[in-house]
Hints:
Blueprint (H helix, E strand, L loop, with lengths): L1 H16 L2 H34 L5 H11 L4 H12 L14 H25 L3 H9 L4 H11 L1 H16 L3 H7 L9 H10 L3 H30 L2
Helix pairs in contact: 1-11, 2-5, 2-8, 3-5, 4-5, 4-9, 5-8, 5-9, 8-11, 10-11
Amino acid sequence: MELIWQGFVQAVRLLLAGDxxxxxxxxxxxxxxxxxxxxxxxxxxxxxxxxxxxxxPGRKIVFSLVNTGMGxxxxxxxxxxxxxxxxxxxxxxxxxxxxxxAMVIAQCVIAVPIITGxxxxxxxxxxxxxxxxxxxxxxxxxxxxxxxxxxVRLPLLAxxxxxxxxxxxxxxxxxxxxxxxxxxxRVLTTATVMxxxxxxxDVAIALSIILMALAYGxxxxxxxxxxxxxxT
Length: 232
């Protein structure tokens, strides 16, 4: 219990003191995971809509791949993204290895299936009669999609929360493609693992508390938006 208490005290001290290193790590965590979630939304929601609203050969197989991807191990993602971005890999000429951009790419691979799967499930719940009414009113394809998105906006917020939660807490992919480089790719998860390996459990607990507070803060904002939508 004393160790846990020391971690809480250390977390408060680091936050109140505005420790530059901790603030930089926290901001990079928010920047990387936020960017990955934002990009994944623009990929996952349209893919989910296509899977839910269209019929094509192999649709069930694609659905099964998306559902499998929702539980994709981060270390597997890290491995394959590393192979692709490595100096002699297919995309090595971009020189992205051990950069925040590489971490964003890896986290997008993790988040896109999550957001796609939840979005597809949300679109599938829309009453088919509503879709027929929208088409009968002469709405264009884009207008139809926008109206459908508005109809399922609350489940889509759940997709955002799930996507962000899946990437902000992962460690394997970030460590493998980012390398935990000080002042460059060190985020809260990789910093926590490093402090544990050094035996600095109080600092590790402090960083974990800050990470949980960050995740809770973002989720709280999205939850408030979601619950406000249920009253309209």
